[in-house]
Amino acid sequence: MHIHNPEPGLVVDEFDVYTELLPLDGAGIIELGCGAAQHTRAIAGTGRPGSILACEVDTVQHEKNLAIDDLPGVTFVHAGAEAIPAEDASADIVMMFKSLHHVPVELMDTAMGEIARVLRPGGMAYISEPVYAGDFNEVLRLFHDEREVREAAFAAVRQAVEAGLLELAGQHFFQTRMAFADFADFEQRVLNVTHTRHELAPELHDRVRRTFEQHQGPEGARFLMPIRVDLLRRPG
To answer: Alpha carbon 202 to chain centroid distance?
Structure first.
């Protein structure tokens, strides 16, 4: 297993990656760390899954998700990956989009055990994580360096594979586009997220703004984020 790929990789929408890799038709899906439900909505919009249990640990965001009334096949629950509210062997697919590194490090192994528990034999886990590289990472690490937690997330996945809880079905590396209208948009979507409090001193805030604006163009700021997907399978 590799934590990163030195090659830049194809630039694709992640939707195209998971819809190609995963057997979504009729699947019972659990999404861990669904956030504002962008991927939840995209997956449900294919009309392919049988059901989606969308879990979010951030109370503020979960309350917003509960107000969503146009996704009848989706159930939103307040839960973390370390305690999935589902029966043993009840899910065909578990998905995590850039959320494993947000699980407390001391609970990451527990979360991987929970994923193995809720998957049916032969069920798939799709875990995507940002690679510690790229221009956006250079902006982010000025105020929120995620190197250690991303390495810990990878180590938890590898440990689950080495322990036989899950089998490695493949690794996939690619880049996805990120776009911000301006720095105010970046502040709203990154600095002001409710699941992580970022309180920047004025000097640091100015440094982050200046670094961000190096990527600002007539159509906004554009970044490519390198992504790794660990595709796992429950043995049996």
So the answer is: 30
